[in-house]
Amino acid sequence: MRINETQLQQVNRQIQRLRESNNFYGARLNQAGITGVDSAEAFEALPFSNKQELRDAYPLGLMAVPEEEIVRIHSSSGTTGKPVIVPYTAKDVDDWGEMFRRCYEFAGITDRDRIQITPGYGLWTAGIGFQNGAEKLGAMVIPMGPGNTEKQLRFMIDMKSTVLTATSSYALLLAEEIQKRGIQDQICLKKGVIGSERWSEKMRRKITDILGIELYDIYGLTEIYGPGIGISCRYDQGMHIWDDYIYLEIIDPVTGENVPDGEFGEIVITTLVKEGAPLIRYRTHDISRIIPGECPCGSRYPRIDVIQGRSDDMVKFRGVNFFPSQVEELLGKFPEVASEYQIRLSHLEGKDTLRLYVETDGTVNFASLADRIAAKFKSAIGFTPLVKVVENGVLPRSEKKAKRVIDERYD
Ligand code: ZN
Predict the structure, then answer these.
(1) pLDDT 10s digits, 271-312
(2) Same domain (yes/no): 300, 336
C-alpha cells in the first residue's frame, strides 16, 4: 500500500496550512524549504513528528488556524510530563463524528439501537467520540461514563441497551458481574464496540461466552481525532482504516523505513483533512501490520491487524522483529503451558541465542513439548528458539508487570 495521487494532493494542502501557521512542524517545513510532495518517495522523505514535540507545543502550539476557528480542545492524559492539547475546528469535530458513524455502520449498528457509553467524558476523546458518532447515526445514546457498576446494570436492563461501548477490561468486569448475578436473561445486548488496547483472546472469549454478543475493535488516538479512525467488520479480520481522512504507514521503528505489507512495525499516521492540528507522519508507537488482500466484506478500506503492543517492546533478533505478544499468542495454543514465560537473549560463543523458558506441570514429556513449541515458534515468527520447559513456579514472579524479555547480548 502506498500513498495515492488524491492523498498526495491532500497532504500538500496540509503542508500549505502548516507552513502558514508556522507551528512546530510548519517551521520545520519552512526552514527546509519544503513546499509540497509530488511522489510517494518525496512523501516518505518528510520528517516524522512525535509525542514529545506535541508536548513541547503545550498549551496551544499545535493550533494551525486562527483561534476563532477553534471550537474545542481535547487532551491526552499525560502520565509523565506535560499533556498534549489538541485543538479542533467545527469541521474536525464533524469529520470525526462522520468517521465514528461509519464505524457503527460497519458494525451493523443502526438508528434502532440503544448505545450505552461507558468510556470517560471530558478532556478525554473517548466518551464524546462514541456519543457524536451515535447521534449522527441517529441511535439512542445512554451516556453513562465510567464506573458505578450498579447503575450501569440498572440502566442496561431498564433501557434495554443493545450496544455496549467500553474498554476491554470494563466490558469483562461488567460481563463477570452479570454472570455472578445470573441476570443474563434480562440483558438485551447484541454488540460490543471495544477500545483498541491490546487484549487477549481469552478475555474476548470470556466476554462473548457470558454475554453472547459480537465484539468489534475500534482504533484511534487523541492526537489523531480520537477513537473512530477504524474498526473491525463482521468478518473480524483486522480493522478497516478510513483512508479518506488519514493515511497510515507501517515503519521499522529502528530504521524508520516503510516495511512491506503484511510485516509488523510501528503505525505512522498523517491526517489528510484536519484543520485545527494537522499532523504529518506522526509516530504512534502502536505496533501492527497492513493486512494484504481484500476483506471478505468487500470493503475497499485498507485493514490493519489488532494492536500488538508498543514499539518500545519490540525484540530484534537475527534480523527478525517480533513482539512478546506474538509469543504469548502462540503459547496460548498449548493448554499444558502456564501463562508465565521468559525470553532470554544472549551472545554465546560468538552467536546470538534466544532461549524461551516456559512452565508446565509434571504430567507432560518436557522434551517433546519443547520441540512442539519450537516448531510452532519457527512457523509463526520465523526462526527456531531454544525452548526450555521447566516446572510450574520456577520462573520469577512479581506483583507488577513481570519482566519477560531479558536481553544480555550487549551487556
Ligand atoms: Zn471487512
Answers:
(1) 999 999 999 999 999 999 999 999 999 999 999 998 888 888
(2) no
State how many domains the chain has: 2
Q: Identify which of 57, 99, 90 has the alpha carbon closest to the alpha carbon of residue 75.
A: 57
Grid coordinates given for 293 = 488482500
Q: What range defines the domain where residue 128 resides?
A: 89-310
| Residue 17 CA to ligand 1 centre (angstroms) | 34
- Cell digits of residue 27: 517551521
| Pair (188, 306) in one structural domain | yes
118: CA distance to ligand 1 center in Å? 26
The model's pTM: 0.84
Rounded alpha-carbon distances, angstroms, from residue 257 to 51, 310, 312, 322: 19, 17, 17, 16
In whole angstroms, how large is the CA radius of gyration of the chain?
A: 23
Instruction: Using the mean position of ligand 1's atoms as its centre, give its distance from the Cα of residue 300 in Å.
Output: 8
Residue carrying C-alpha cell 494532493: 9
pLDDT in tens, 83-111: 999 999 999 999 999 999 999 999 999 99
Question: Are residues 120 and 241 part of one domain?
Answer: yes
Question: Mean of the pLDDT values across residues 337-343?
Answer: 86
Residue 249 Cα to ligand 1 midpoint, Å, equals: 19
- CB-based contact 354:340 (threshold 8 Å): no
Q: Is residue 68 part of a domain?
A: no
Q: How far is the CA of 322 from the centre of ligand 1 (A)?
A: 26
97 C-alpha vs ligand 1 centroid, how far in Å? 20
Residue 237 CA to ligand 1 centre (angstroms): 7
In a domain, 75, yes or no: no
Kindly give the distance from the C-alpha atom of residue 306 to the centroid of ligand 1, in angstroms, as a whole number.
13
**173-183 confidence digits (pLDDT tens):** 899 999 999 99
For residue 126, the CA-to-ligand 1 centroid distance in Å is 23
Is residue 328 assigned to a domain? yes
DSSP-derived secondary structure for 58-78: TTTTT--S-GGGEEEEEEE--
- Residue 201 maps to a domain: yes
Interval between CA 296 and ligand 1 midpoint (Å) = 6
pLDDT at residue 62 tops 90: yes
pLDDT of res. 410? 75
- Phi, psi of 231, deg, nearest 5: -155, 155
User: What is the DSSP code string of 103-128?
Assistant: HHHHTT--TT-EEEE-SPPSSSSHHH
Q: Please give the distance, rounded to the nearest whole angstrom, from the Cα atom of residue 45 to the centre of ligand 1.
A: 31
